[in-house]
Amino acid sequence: MPLPVPNLDDRRFDDLVAEAKARLAAHLPELTQVSPGDPIHTVIDLFAWLTETLLYRANLIPERQRRIFLNLLQIPLRPALPGQGVVCIDASPSSAQLPPLVEAGTQLRAGKQPLTVLGEVQPTPLTLQVLIKQALSTDELRALGMTLNDLHEQYGLRRGETPQPYLPKRLVVGRDTIDLSQALDTSVYLAAIAPKQLDDHIAALRDNVAGIRINIALAPADDLIAADTVVADAVADSVNPQDALPRILVWELVSQLPNQDGSLGVRHFPLEVISDTSMGGRQVGVVRLRLPNNSGLFADFANADPMFDGTKAFPPALDDAVRAQRVVFWLRLRCPQEPTLQLSYLGINGIDVAAQGQRVDRMLGVGTGQPDQVMALPDGNVDPATLVLEVEDHGSWVPWRAVDVLANQGEHAQVYQLNRETGLVYFGDGQHSGKRPPVGAGIRIATYRYGGGAHTNLAVGTIKELVEGHSRHKLRHDLPLQGGRDGETVQQAEQRIPTFLTHRNRAVTVDDFIFITLNNPVNTVARTEVIPGFLPGITLDSARFEVPGTVSVFVLPPAERAMGNTPKPTKGLLKDVFDYLSVRTLVGTELYVLSPLYQPIAVSVMVQVKDPQTEQMTLNAVQHALVEYLWLLAPGGREGQGWPMGHSVRPQELLTQVAKVDGVLSVNGLALFSKETLSITDLSTKDALTKSKSKSKSASKPPAKSLTTARGVPVKTVWRTVSNPQGLALAPYELPDLQGVRVAIGNVGDALKLPAELNDVDEAGSAIAVPVIPEVC
Predict the structure, then answer these.
(1) What is the DSSP secondary structure assignment for residue 661, as one 8-state letter?
(2) Which domain, by its residues, includes 532?
(3) pLDDT tens digits for 416-439?
(4) Domain count, the chain
(5) What's the pTM value of the predicted model, to 2 decimals?
(6) Domain stops at, among 296, 326, 348
(7) Could you identify which of 282, 342, 409, 744 might form a hypothetical disulfide with 413, taking C-beta atoms 3.0 to 4.6 angstroms apart as the criterion?
(8) Are 212 and 297 in a shared domain?
C-alpha cells in the first residue's frame, strides 16, 4: 500500500477568510463593529482567493515532480494502434479488359475515417468458388444406398484399384470453415469464375489475366475456440516457437494436358508466391501469386465426361454446368506442413489496409542550427515505421534515421528521435547526441501514416469509398478490421510505469509473468495463471511437473458473465501472448502459452421458497448465484478472483451458496454432473460400455461422426452424477465449464435430473446432413 502524500497546505478559502478576520481583530481592535458591506471584507476575500490559488499550485508541485521523474525514465505513453484487415477491389464486369492497377498508398474512406492501402492489387472481374472433396466413410456411403463395389463397377475400375468416395462440397466463404483435414486429398480447390456478362469473352479474359499478379486474401479460423482445435490427446492448446514462423502454403494451377495415350490428364503447376502477408494463414493477410504467361494452361474442365468428372486428380465438379463454362482457371491450395489447416476466408482481388491517414511531401520547416531543435508533425499517433524524414544538404534531400535514444550518437550522426504519440521530432545537440540540422536547411516529410484507436475496428461493409479510384473499381469489404486500440492516458501511464520498474519488462518471477501478460498491449487478457515447471506432453499421462526451466502460462479472455459463455482463449490470443512474452523471458526458459483444460459440469438443485409469489424470481436468483460462483473470472470463486484453477468442485460448497440466496427457505437436494467418456471396447462380444477416463480432447475439427481415442477405439461422451462426497477433482490445469443449471421446487428425495438442454446430446452419434448424389444413366 503506498504511503499517503499530504498536501503542502490544506487550507481552503473559508479557512483563510476566518484566519484573516481573526488576525485583523487581533491587530486592529478598533474594528469591533464592521458591517457586512464594509470594504474590508472585499479585501479579505480577494487576498484569501489569491492565497488559495497559490496553495493549489503549490500542492501540485509533488505531482509535477513525479511526472518529471517518470519522463526521465524515457518510458513514453503507449500510442493508439490502428485497425487492420483486408478489402477486395474488383473490376466491374463491363469489359474483359482489366482496369488500372491500384497502387500502394491509395486512400480509402469509411465515412470520415481515412484508410491506406498497404500493397498493390490488379482488380479483375473474377469471383471465387471454394470446393473440397469431402471424404465419405463406409457408413456414410451405405447411408446413401451405395457400396464400394457399386462405385468400382460404376467407374469401371481395374482389379486392385480401390475407390475413395467423396462428396464435392462447396464452401460458403464467411460462413463455412475451410478445413483441409475434411478433404480427401487435404486440398482446397478454387474456381476463378467470370461474370455472366462476359460469357462470350472468356478466351479474351484468359489472355488478359495471363501473366498478371493476382491477390488472394485469406484469414485463419481463429474465431474457433482454442480448446476445440487442439490435436487429439493434447493436454491443451499451446503456442510454441514454431507457431510464430510462417507456414508454407503450396499454390498450384490445375491444368489439363494430353497424356501419352491421347487421353486428357491433370497437371499441377506450382505458382510463384511473390509475397504473403498472412504468414501462411497465421493471420489476416494477402497472398500475391504470379499466373503463367501462357493462357493455354488455363482449363475449365467443363467438357469432361460427366461419368468421370471429378475423378482421380480432376477438380470437384461444380454444381452448375453453365457456371462451369465460365471458369477462367482452377487453383489448388495445399499445406503439407499442416494438413489440418483451417481458414475462415478466401477472397480474390484482396489487399491489406490500415485505418490510418497518410501524409506525403510535407514541408516541416527549416533548421535553426541550435542544439536540441524540436519540430512538430501535423498529426499525432504517427507510425514510426512509415516515417521518412529528409533534410536538405547542398541542394539534395538526405533521409535521416530514427533512433530510440539520441545519447551517444556522435556529432555527425544524421539521426532524430520521434515521440510517436505526440508527433514531436527531436534533433541532436551537434556534439554527443547527433547532428544539428544546418541553419536554413529545409526539413520535409516524404511520407508517414498516422491515426488509430478502438474506433478504427471497422465493421463489415463500412469501407465504401475508393478515393480517386477508377470508374471500374468496385470496393468489397467482407472482413472486419481488428487490432485498433486507444492510446494510453496519462493516468494509465502513471499506474503502469512505476510497476515497470519492478520487472524492467522482463518476466522472471511468477508475478512478472502474470503482470506482463495482463498488461500486454496486443490482445486483452482477463485472467492469467502460471504453473512453473509444468511441461505439457503429447498425452495427459505424459505431462510432467517440476521440470526446471519450464514455465506454462494459462490465459483467459474477457467475457460477459452468462450461462454457456465460458471464457475460452482463441488460437490468435495464445499466439499474441506467446509472441509478447517470448522476447521478455530469460535465456533458456521453455515457455508455453496454454488454454486450460475445461471439464464440462452441470448442476441440479431442489429448493423450497419462502414466498410463492416470488417463486420464479427466487429460482432465477439461485441460478444466477451458481453461475456467478462458478464463473472463471472475477467476481467468481470463493475469493472473488475467478474459480481457482485445479480447485475441486464440491456439492456441499455449492449447496451453501444456494442457501444464501434471499428467498430460499430450504435446500432439499443438489446433484453435480460431469461429462465423461465411455469407451466401446468390444460391443460384439461384451455388449457393454467400459468406463474410462477421457484422455483426448476434440480433434482438430468438431467431430462429425464419432469420437475415437488415440488407439482408434470408438468413444461416447455421457453425463454422469458425481457420487464422490469430495466432489469433482480437477487437475492443476483444469477449470470447470458450467453448461447447465436446473433449479426446481421439490422435497427431499425427489429425483435430481440433468438440465433439459443437455439431455439429448450425443456427440458420438450425431447425424450428418449430406447431399444425395444423383444417379447417372
Answers:
(1) S
(2) 507-594
(3) 999 888 899 999 998 888 999 999
(4) 5
(5) 0.66
(6) 348
(7) 409
(8) yes
> Cell numbers at residue 590, please?
521453455
Residue 114 lies in a domain: no
Specify whether 332 is located in the same domain as 288: yes
Q: Assign 3-class secondary structure to 684-735.
A: CCCCCCEEECCCCCCCCCCCCCCEECCCCCEEEEEEEECCCCCCECCCCCEE
601 with 589, same domain: the answer is no
For residue 196, give Cα distances in angstroms to 89, 95, 350, 608: 19, 11, 21, 68
- pLDDT for residue 599: 93
pLDDT for res 532: 95
Query: Half-sphere exposure of residue 541, counting CA atoms within 13 Å on the CB side?
Result: 5
The confidence score (pLDDT) of residue 352 equals 96
The grid coordinates of residue 767 equal: 447425424
Regions of the chain with pLDDT less than 50: 1, 224-225, 227-243, 680-714, 760-774, 776-777
Cell of 748: 427431499
Predicted pLDDT at 554: 96
Residue 431 inside a domain? The answer is yes
pLDDT value, residue 748: 85
Are 659 and 577 found together in one domain? no
Is 415 found in the same domain as 282? no
635 cis-preceded (ω within 30 degrees of 0): yes
Distance in angstroms between the alpha carbons of the first and the last residue of the chain: 84
C-alpha 305/C-alpha 35 separation (Å) is 114
Q: What is the DSSP string of 463-517?
A: --EETT--TTEEEE--S--B--BPPPPHHHHHHHHHHHHHHTT-B-SHHHHHHHH
pLDDT of residue 94: 87
Q: How far is CA 111 from the centre of its chain?
A: 25
The Cα-based distances of 155 to 192, 278, 317, 432 in angstroms read: 28, 41, 16, 82
Confirm if 599 and 674 have CB atoms less than 8 A apart.
yes
**Residue type present at position 92:** S
Phi, psi of 613 (to 5 degrees): -70, -25
Contact assessment for residue 755 and residue 741, using Cβ atoms and an 8 Å cutoff: yes
d(C-alpha 364, C-alpha 444), whole Å: 5
The answer as to whether 81 is a domain residue is no
